[in-house]
Design goal:
Elements: E1 9-13, H1 18-29, E2 33-38, H2 50-53, E3 62-66, H3 72-82, E4 86-89, H4 96-99, H5 103-123, E5 131-137, H6 160-179, E6 183-188, E7 191-192, H7 201-213, E8 220-222, E9 228-229, E10 232-233, H8 234-245, E11 252-255, E12 261-262, H9 263-274, E13 283-285, H10 303-309, H11 317-331, H12 339-347
Parallel strand pairs: 1-2, 1-4, 2-3, 4-5, 5-6, 6-11, 7-10, 8-13
Antiparallel strand pairs: 9-12
The structure holds NADP nicotinamide-adenine-dinucleotide phosphate (NAP) and ligand G4F.
């Protein structure tokens, strides 16, 4: 693992998702050659990375391969051809509510998919040369045993998604101990951005507000708005994925802001910033968005990450909401309020991702 940063190769599963796309931006800015696994869809699913493969100044920086977490032979073939220094395993059916509808598929892609990646490293004899990052999640804490949650807090998962991710967490640790693979878990708390999937609550709210402003919708339909989450900013969190793989030894780290807010508080901040006034006149509760078993509160303690690699998030919820609303107003051709753009300019003078 003594190659220099300039010559390193990274393989990202889930490169077309929120995190995968920011991670590709970040690693390319660090001089990596980035390979990404894309699943075949009947429509284009590469919108979040289009700016990268359309950048003809970087023709040898990004390579895409078709593959699927359910297809071991292709995964082995890709890993064998690329022989990456670092694998960031982010691909997953990542929607908690949906995992109750498609539990078997979720287990196959999120749990066994992770096993397939680790087995590929082992079968190809890459234990000593390929590091592995597993996208673990604060959903593991489920019905939380303590507040805040850290690396020692027991897991009490509450959804098929979290239970699939529980397997993935432990198989990552097991392959570290059994086969000396440099395999680490990042236990990331919720992180959002203008690239967040549109069915997650943060983006559903910011897009909903933009659509109301644009006269396209009158209401936003939501589920349990009492739930509390520890919401951070995705670009800062993907940087910590890279830091986790640059540690001397493989290990597991919580990444969070340490602050929890309810969905209601998110609504309040977002509607106030957008200048729409009282959110209650625009929000309807719809039972279809409730989960059979809910995670009421997530709040992380990332002291370990702070001590190991200086993790200190710059963006808290109030800023995050402004950044997301500015971006969604831009998307809907509405006059941009601008505070979010200013926060990005001030807090990230050396921003490595394009403004969304
Ligand atoms: P995301 O936006 O939903 O992206 C998921 C990615 O996985 C997409 O590229 C998706 O492809 C791909 N994918 C899904 N099923 C696949 C399959 N069977 N084979 C190949 N690729 C597949 O998720 P994210 O927010 O970026 O999160 C990245 C990872 O971190 C996920 O594993 C998630 O569970 C985990 N995580 C996320 C958070 C968070 O708050 N965002 C927190 C903790 C952990 P398509 O683009 O084709 O759909
Ligand atoms: O935005 P959410 O769907 O995110 P959730 O369930 O916390 O999961 C996300 O974060 C996890 C990390 O903790 C990741 F592992 C996972 O992959 C994903 O990225 O929901 C947040 C909260 C929940 O309590 C939910 O019940 O918002 C509540 N909520 C209320 N109304 C809603 C809605 N969630 C969604 N998606 N849609 C609603 O209408």
């Amino acid at each position: 693992m003594e190659t220099t940063t300039e010559t390193k190769k990274a393989l990202i599963t889930g490169i077309t998702g929120q995190d995968g796309s920011y991670l590709a931006d970040f690693l390319i800015s660090k001089g990596y050659q980035v390979h990404g696994i894309v699943r075949k869809a009947s429509n284009f699913n590469t919108q979040r990375i289009e700016h990268l493969f359309k950048d003809y100044n970087k023709p040898d920086k990004l390579f895409l391969h078709y593959g699927d977490m359910a297809d071991a032979t292709t995964l082995i073939d890709i890993i064998n051809k690329v022989k990456p220094d670092e694998i960031y395993h982010l691909a997953a059916q990542s929607h908690v509510r949906t995992s109750f509808d498609i539990p078997e598929y979720t287990a196959n892609s999120d749990a066994i998919g992770t096993l397939r990646m680790l087995e590929a490293i082992k079968l190809l004899g890459l234990q000593k040369t390929t590091k592995f990052y597993q996208a673990s999640t604060s959903e593991l804490y489920g019905k939380v045993a303590e507040i805040p949650q850290n690396e020692e807090t027991p897991f009490r998962p509450r959804s098929p998604y979290a239970i699939a991710k529980l397997y993935a967490y432990w198989i990552t640790k097991n392959y570290r101990e059994a086969y000396s693979i440099f395999s680490s878990n990042g236990i990331l708390f919720n992180h959002e951005s203008p690239r967040r999937g549109e069915s997650f609550v943060s983006r559903k709210i910011t897009i909903g507000i933009a659509r109301i402003k644009a006269g396209l919708d009158k209401k936003i339909y939501l589920g349990n708005i009492e739930a509390k989450r520890d919401w951070g900013f995705a670009p800062e969190y993907v940087e910590s994925m890279w830091r986790i793989l640059q540690q001397e030894k493989p290990d597991d780290f919580v990444v969070s802001t340490g602050q929890a807010y309810s969905v209601k508080e998110f609504l309040q901040l977002a509607f106030t910033y957008a200048g729409l006034g009282d959110w209650q006149q625009y929000v309807e509760i719809d039972l279809q968005y409730f989960r059979p078993t809910e995670v009421d509160l997530l709040q992380g303690n990332s002291s370990k990450a702070r001590n190991a690699f200086g993790f200190e998030p710059k963006i808290r919820l109030e800023d995050l909401v402004k950044i997301m609303i500015d971006a969604d107003f831009r998307k809907y051709n509405l006059p941009v309020i601008g505070a979010g753009d200013r926060i990005l300019a001030e807090k990230f003078p050396n921003r490595w991702w394009p403004i969304d």
